Amino acid sequence: MKHLVTIQDLSIHEIDDILKEAQKLALTSTPRESENILIANLFLEPSTRTRFSFEAAERNLGFHVLNVDEASSSMTKGETLYDTIRTLEEIGAEAVVIRHHQDRYFDELLGKISIPIINAGDGCGNHPTQSLLDMMTIQQEFIVTQGLNVVVAGDIRHSRVAASNAELLEKMGANVYYSGPREWIPEHCKKRYLTMDEACSTADVMMMLRIQHERHVDGMNMSKEEYHRRFGLTLDRECRMKRHSIIMHPAPVNRGVELADELVECSRSRIFKQMKNGVFVRMAVLNWALDRIKEESTYGIAA
Ligand code: CP
After folding, report:
1. 47: Cβ below 6 Å to ligand 1?
2. What mean pLDDT comes out for the span 110-118?
3. Same structural domain for residues 213 and 243?
4. Closest Cα to atom 1, ligand 1: which residue?
């Protein structure tokens, strides 16, 4: 069974195919041919971009969409995640898109669920479709394998986007650096640490992250203003970036904290482009997952 729960589920060949397909869909948005496919979306943590771009992707492909609302589902009566997904499978969903607050929620499902699970974000763990849409956005401007310097800056420790992006960027040949408060830089990232001033002169791509307050055990020990001054992309730092460098952010953005308000839609910013690319990447991922099921049933590969 081909799930997409982490970037490790994809070979370089499959990543290339998905990104090429997404680029093609950006030009055509072709629906699949008259297939009566039902996709379930199960978002157990708030989301704007991922949730609605998956739904837009599903509708663009001509699929029927089942949005499971946690508050009115039997999860409120204690039904397990496994039983909920088995139910969705039995009532006809051919894939399930899941966002969950718990790291690696999918471990208890793999090997037991016979429809593809597409991970729309797990706790501090993974966000593979965000990484693919970020890669699509980068590839629209740069050749990643030619020594591209990407700085991921901010709350690295609590960010699933940082983890998945670093994995994908390194797999594709980019140089990944980290910046932000040292207490939020995991041990294995410390040897690639840059101050924000160093980051500005190094980055071809400056990938800013929100402070993930909802995943912090202790509160933040500095004001938003101090954070912006010490670790944010300020107007002054932006002036010192290389001429061709771009700014990215998975959003939502806390304007004026990690990124100056004026930079959110400046000429270097690709933040809204990332969101647009998200629809095409998610269309390509859904096609990839459904095609793998077809191959399995055609060639009899065991799930
Ligand atoms: N980038 C991202 O995952 O945004 P949402 O939380 O709004 O889906």
Report:
1. yes
2. 96
3. yes
4. 250
